[in-house]
């Protein structure tokens, strides 16, 4: 590990999995692979990262440690089943026995799904998060995973699921098994430094949506509530700094933690921000975090009657004067404006015609069940229209 003036931000955690956090800890990747019994890891990433020095360094370190490492990068921004199938072919034909899922949410989700499918005999969507379908998984046929996040948004490194688009129906489906949780996470803030400002803003707002929707979920989970509150405090303090100066390692470190906290908290559930965002991503290929950021204030306004007590709690925790719903909504709107998040879905090329088509999909999205106000096609369409036209009344 390299010496750093931010050495106090280095730690090993086991929550909810083994996390090696700190600047320079990417160099521990070969050790993590060996700890999980890997001898030929497959590094799964995306095309944007595949040619960067960080990937070459990871491969070189593994190769020099006696772990011949191949790279698979045919993963699109909203990963589809064909990406998983292609990666699985490389995994099997190359004799690989483990996966390094390296990148943002798309690469992490694809990598986890590829590892799940290593020696399965059933098709991918037989493991969708429905009823007890997770029991169909042959646990001995899952490959171990080391996750290396390079953004601070999805928190997929601590998730037990992958979101994969079914091209046949243009719907995002959640593939779930408890053992999809990566066994080791290497969380190195240096890896997020190259992320452009607009993507730093979008993924940071994604982390906010995870923490915020977890807090608003009507389910009883006080531990998740506590994590969500602190995650949002970190985002309030550090997301603007990340967007002001992408090289601010202290800000990057705190945002990486906030992202992981959001994904830990949302085991309590998500809500309409994600219910609206998933169909947009599946059908229109909008950026997931950016879409969550755009719909956020409209969903808060829709849920207001059911979440006023939660918003007062959040406002008190953040130290705002006159704590209540209005001060939180105002904070969200000012935060979005300050980091150049678009104001409406129309800015993302979502139209009124799309609203009518996407609403039934949003109403049955797996995240809809824990929205504080019950969702149906009619109110989802109205939410889309409000977000398209910028109506917060």
Description of the molecule:
The protein has 13 helices and 9 strands. It has helices at residues 29-35, 47-50, 53-64, 81-93, 105-116, 197-216, 222-244, 249-265, 272-284, 288-317, 325-338, 352-363, 377-389; strands spanning 11-14, 18-21, 41-44, 70-72, 98-103, 145-149, 161-166, 171-176, 184-187. The strands form 2 sheets. The protein has a 7-stranded mixed sheet, with helices on both faces. Strand 7 (161-166) and strand 8 (171-176) form a beta hairpin. Helix 6 packs antiparallel against helix 7. The termini are far apart.
Features:
Rossmann fold; globular; 48% helix; Dehydroquinate synthase-like, alpha domain; two-stranded antiparallel sheet; 393 residues; 2 domains; alpha/beta; single chain
How is this structure best summarized?
The chain has 393 residues and is of the alpha/beta class. It is 48% helix and 11% strand.
List the helices and strands and how they pair.
Layout: E1 11-14, E2 18-21, H1 29-35, E3 41-44, H2 47-50, H3 53-64, E4 70-72, H4 81-93, E5 98-103, H5 105-116, E6 145-149, E7 161-166, E8 171-176, E9 184-187, H6 197-216, H7 222-244, H8 249-265, H9 272-284, H10 288-317, H11 325-338, H12 352-363, H13 377-389
Parallel strand pairs: 2-9, 3-4, 3-5, 5-6, 6-9
Antiparallel strand pairs: 1-2, 7-8
């Amino acid at each position: 590990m390299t010496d750093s003036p931010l050495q106090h931000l280095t730690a090993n955690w086991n929550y909810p999995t083994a996390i090696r956090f700190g600047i320079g800890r990417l160099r521990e990747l070969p050790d993590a692979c060996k700890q999980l019994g890997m001898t030929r890891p497959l590094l799964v990433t995306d095309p944007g990262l595949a040619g960067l020095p960080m990937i070459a360094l990871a491969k070189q370190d593994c190769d020099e440690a006696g772990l011949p490492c191949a790279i698979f990068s045919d993963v699109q921004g909203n990963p589809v089943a064909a990406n998983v199938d292609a990666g699985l072919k490389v995994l099997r034909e190359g004799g690989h026995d483990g996966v390094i899922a390296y990148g943002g949410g798309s690469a992490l989700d694809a990598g986890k799904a590829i590892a799940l499918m290593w020696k399965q005999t059933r098709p991918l969507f037989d493991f969708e998060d429905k009823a007890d379908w997770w029991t169909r998984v042959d646990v001995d046929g899952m490959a171990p995973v080391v996750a290396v996040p390079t953004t601070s948004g999805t928190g997929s490194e601590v998730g037990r699921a992958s979101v994969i688009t079914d091209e046949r129906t243009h719907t995002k489906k959640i593939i779930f098994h408890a053992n999809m949780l990566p066994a080791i996470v290497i969380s190195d803030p240096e890896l997020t430094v190259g992320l452009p400002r607009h993507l730093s803003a979008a993924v940071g707002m994604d982390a906010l949506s995870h923490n915020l929707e977890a807090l608003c979920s009507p389910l009883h989970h006080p531990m998740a509530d506590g994590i969500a509150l602190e995650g949002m405090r970190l985002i309030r303090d550090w997301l603007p700094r990340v967007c002001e100066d992408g090289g601010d390692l202290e800000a990057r470190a705190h945002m990486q933690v906030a992202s992981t906290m959001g994904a830990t908290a949302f085991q309590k559930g998500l809500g309409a921000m994600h219910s609206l965002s998933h169909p947009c991503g599946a059908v229109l290929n909008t950026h997931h975090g950016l879409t969550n950021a755009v719909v956020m204030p409209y969903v808060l306004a829709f849920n207001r009657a059911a979440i006023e007590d939660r918003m007062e709690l959040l406002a008190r925790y953040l130290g705002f004067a006159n704590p209540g719903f209005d001060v939180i909504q105002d904070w969200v709107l000012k935060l979005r404006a300050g980091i150049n998040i678009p104001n409406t879905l129309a800015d993302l090329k979502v139209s009124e015609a799309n609203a009518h088509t996407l609403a039934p999909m949003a109403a049955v999205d797996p995240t809809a069940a824990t929205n504080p106000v019950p969702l149906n096609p009619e109110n989802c369409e109205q939410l889309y229209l409000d977000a398209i036209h910028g109506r917060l009344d």
